[in-house]
Amino acid sequence: MSIIKPHKLGVIAGPGSEYFTGRVVKHIRRLYLDRYSRLSEALVKRHGMSEDELLKEVTLIDDLNARKIPAGKLPGQFYCPDVTINVKYTRFANGEEKAEIIDPVRGLHVYIVYDVSNSFPIKVAGLDEPRPLSVNDHLMFLFTTIDAVRLAGAESITLVLPTYPYARQHKKAGREALTASMFARFCEELGVSRIITLDIHSREIENSFSKCHLENLHASYQTLICLRKLIDFSDPDLVVVSPDTGAVNRNKFYAQGLHRPLAVLYKERDYSVVSRDAKNTNIKSINLLGDVSGKTVLMADDMIATGGTLIIAMRELMKRGAKKIICIVSLPFFNGSAIENFDAAYKEGVFWRIIGTNAVFQGKELLEKEWFIQADVTELFARVITRLHHGRSISPLLDNRKFIQKLIDSSQANPAAPVLKEKEDSFMD
């Protein structure tokens, strides 16, 4: 396998995931171009050859690795091929769905990038107009794509799912399905070798796999880069608050990194009352362990669904004297009327900013809000894909504490310092 070009690599975009996948592919191609630039500079000096001579040697290696007999003149400069695999998705009048692989994938290591939580209107063959697809619609498209790729002779299949479907159905109290585990068994049965996801709701889901590998990425570094533009990391009045006991470890991670105190909101619930929504909840009282008076509050959570309990938590913190509230979330779903509810809360001064990633597709309605800031995680996924494709370790990308600590320490020492690219962050080095 060539370490210079992505031979035998193919990337497929699921319906509604074309933009996210396009950005991932763009980063993949840039990473290879950067790799060649650094490599050529070193090899020219090491072997005493010109850049043109090196390019001829590289082209020869590429031609030997090519699946087709090369034709035409030698290239005048290094280029990275497009790794995108075209797929035709069809939805029939009776609701059945099909995926048809247009480009050959035999012998390729295929990565299927799919945002199965995308609820915005999507156009596929068989539909006159774009229409929203449910999670279950997306899953059927995903399963048919996997099977089509497998039957077409792909060497391996990896799913890149920024949001793991049914992640909140990972435990049961009675006669109910463990749907998160069931999805894992489906994927293994279809021949999936690896799943890459972002901030999965519960790490217990990993125990559902017997053969497939689950790689759980974290968006903390990307969101902290956005946060750095909003606040001073050296501010002594900064405090990290966990919105509930279930998010303590996540917020402890930020508190330790920022060297700031950690506070916790504890909700007492009356379980004889069934929670229906944010206005009709079984929360009896909220207690705060810590002090937020006159402080800038940073809260972190894995997702925002309807956001009702988060708004309740932020209101409680404002009542207790919080000066400013910033919330960090990896998966900003904003289901139902969540955008309208947060917009109203923002106008009341309940919070200041929410930082969420682009792992979940969002429309202009949210992206144009003053209070919402989007962090880009497409490069993170691109780096993981390139490392996995070349058999390199992805541990530095799974455990990003070293990069985060450098970012925070340099910011606290000099808040005006630019964010520097770490050499260790290279996908090959």
Automatic annotation (TrEMBL):
Residues 235-348 form the Phosphoribosyltransferase domain. Its EC number is 2.7.6.1. GO terms for molecular function: ATP binding; kinase activity; magnesium ion binding; ribose phosphate diphosphokinase activity. The keyword Cytoplasm does not apply. It catalyses: D-ribose 5-phosphate + ATP = 5-phospho-alpha-D-ribose 1-diphosphate + AMP + H(+). GO terms for cellular component: cytoplasm; ribose phosphate diphosphokinase complex. Residues 85-191 form the Ribose-phosphate pyrophosphokinase N-terminal domain. Keywords: ATP-binding, Kinase, Nucleotide biosynthesis, Nucleotide-binding, Transferase. One of its GO terms (biological process) is purine nucleotide biosynthetic process. Belongs to the ribose-phosphate pyrophosphokinase family. NCBIfam families: PRK06827.1, ribP_PPkin. This is ribose-phosphate diphosphokinase. The gene is prs.
